[in-house]
Design brief:
Mean pLDDT: 75
Number of strands: 17
Structural class: alpha+beta
Distance between the termini: 25 Å
Order of helices and strands: EHHEEEEEHEEHEHEEEEHEEEHHE
Strand content: 15-25%
Amino acid sequence: MTQHTSDGIRLNKFISDAGICSRREADKLIEQGRVLVNGKPPEVGARIKGKDKIQVDGKTLQWNQVAPVYLALNKPAGIETTTDLSQRDNIIRFVNYPERIFPIGRLDKDSEGLIFLTNDGDIVNKILRAGNKHEKEYIVTVDKPINEDFVQKMSNGVSILGVNTKKCFVEQLGPNKFRIILTQGMNRQIRRMTEALGYEVQTLQRIRIMNITLAKLPLGQWRELTEGEIDMLQSMVADSVMTEEGSVGKKKAAANQTQTSQPARKKSSSGSRPPRKEGGAGKKSSFGASDSKGGRGQRGASKGPGAKKSGGKSSKGYRGASRNAPAAKGGGKKRR
């Protein structure tokens, strides 16, 4: 919730805390005359108090609105990405955050790496919609040596769930290791793609979502996104859709998966179009290369109690799991 003193708080912070946009974008809204305080346009840098009425584009903001929360977690294997508390090792109990949050998307129980948690439903929809083409980067090891043929086939798209996956960036990092950047989010996509080519995933780590990387965030720990990261994230999703048009790819895959379990039906001419060509093996990511340790991210997390919180703006956190230890059963003890 927004906290304020006798001197009030900055108007841009109040708008940001209400989940409308970043502070920088709030200043732009003020400059554009889209913000009113007690019915009058304020100046950039204005301070407000609890008795003031604030409107953005005609919508009145409430003082008791919960501030948006954006967390980055380095999820260990064994933790279920679910809000179902009946699941023994669910991600919500593992993080043990004091306010209601939920994960953005999924990361398989057997996989580890970066995942966001938030209470901002709008940004969840914008990031998840397949049509918005937001990048996610992974480091994967498989059970036997790969070669250029494997890289080319993965890059050009693999038939899974009745559809061809979109073209993507793939780079070999070692005899059994590769890096892959996806803009899709099909169920167990990387595992299904490698299986279709005769391989089995041994380890899978997500090291980046859009502009946020693991950097030096230890396994099993979480941190709050910095204001700069949030501003960049908000900017990257500013033109993203939150409607059904962003989910065409997922719906098509689901429809094809359903058809495989039912008697064959005559296909319409519109359903036989070839997949749209995007990217390729040699196409560079718009973000740039990252290494297996998390790439060129922001500075690593500072030491702190901690799933264990690390870095960020707050000092509270809960102990998480270590890489060599069994998956944690809950957030653990709070470090004093």
